[in-house]
Specification:
With 88 residues, the protein is mostly helical. Helix content is 86%, strand content 0%. The protein has 3 helices and no strands. Helix 2 runs antiparallel to helix 3. It is elongated. 3% of the residues are buried.
């Protein structure tokens, strides 16, 4: 009986470790954003969120709005950089 309990414990540890490894490696390479792009998004989000909440909008609405707006701004900036690099 004790052997079965130990075997079950070991199997649980193996399963937990197997699940944790892929998620940890995915977090390490989560996107190809550079520190500069993260700073741009972060500063855009902070300014937008502050302005939005001061205007009286609910926090959740401001988070959703600013996340979308700042993401779109980042994509537009990246596309304009690509267009400049392609045509040079």
């Amino acid at each position: 009986m004790a052997n079965k309990v130990v075997a079950l414990l070991v199997m649980c540890l193996v399963v937990v470790a197997a699940v944790q490894l892929p998620s940890a490696s995915a977090n390490e390479h989560d996107g190809d954003a550079t520190a500069h792009e993260d700073d741009n998004f972060s500063s855009c989000f902070k300014i937008c969120h502050k302005d939005c909440t001061h205007a009286g909008a609910p926090n959740t609405l401001c988070e959703m709005k600013c996340d979308g707006d700042c993401f779109n701004k980042g994509v537009k900036d990246q596309l304009s950089e690509l267009q400049v690099n392609v045509f040079e």
